Amino acid sequence: MTEPEPLPAWRRHTEGERRWPVGIAMIAIIALQWFLPDRLTLGPRWLFPLVEGVLAVVLHAADPGKLRRDTSTLRMIALGLITVASLGTAWSVAMLIRDIVTGYDTGSAAQLLGTGAAIYLMNVLTFAVWFWELDRGGPVARAHGIDPYPDFLFPPMTSPDMARKEWEPRFLDYLYVAFTNATAFSPTDTLPMTRGAKSGMALESAIALATAALVIAKAVNALG
Predict the structure, then answer these.
(1) Are 27 and 184 in contact (CB under 8 A)?
(2) Residue 119 has what pLDDT?
(3) Checking DSSP bridges between strand 191-192 and strand 152-153, what pairing results, if any?
(4) Is 91 exposed, middle or buried (0-12, 13-18, 19+ CB in 10 A)?
(5) Residue among 114, 117, 95, 113 nearest 222 (CA)
(6) DSSP code per residue over 154-202
């Protein structure tokens, strides 16, 4: 008798991934929020970065190294962290669009392009963390192999012979999905499988398209 093929890593119990790549992404979001003009921030400039920083420190202290703990409290803190970051990003996007549409003085073309690029990057990083946090129940649940049905279908899942047996999605994979989705305004090599994933990708594309189109048009007008 031939032995059955072993399950791929993404479908069985494996060691958890490390949180530091997501930590770098959150630091980048906090830094971008801090350096945005005051008119594009919700409340005092320090409020959202402070809350996000505290929540991030709590998560790292509670589960350092490789992610192993899967408690409801830590899960709520993790989702709360990205929710706060999302509120800050959404507010900045809305205020930038308002300024452009109403003809508010957004500064020189270079300043506007710099602000637009910062918000565009915040959008990519925010959705990358969301995708990472929600796919198959989150990073710890994925490591435990609890849910065999992915929210995102990565190429190695459909062509396992073309990938190493120990391959499983990491944060960089979700960052790539978020970046290409915001750049192409549609899925590229990774397909959304659930309604939640489709909704998230559609929302990210809409934000990216509106931001890029309005910022570029306004900048070209300012140069003219």
Answers:
(1) no
(2) 94
(3) antiparallel
(4) middle
(5) 113
(6) -HHHH-GGGS-TT----HHHHHHHHHHHHHHSS--SSEE-SHHHHHHHH
Distance of CA 6 to the CA centre of its chain: 31
Separation CA 83–CA 78 (nearest Å): 9
| Amino acid type, 93 | V
Instruction: Take residue 30 and report the two structure tokens written for it.
Output: 């906090």
CA–CA separation, 97 and 150 (whole Å)? 34
Rounded distance, CA 24 to CA 59, Å? 14
Scan for tokens 């509106």, then name that residue. 210
The pTM of this model reads 0.92
DSSP state of 135: G
Question: H or E stretch including 59?
Answer: helix 47-62
Q: How confident is the model at residue 137 (pLDDT cuts 50, 70, 90)?
A: very high
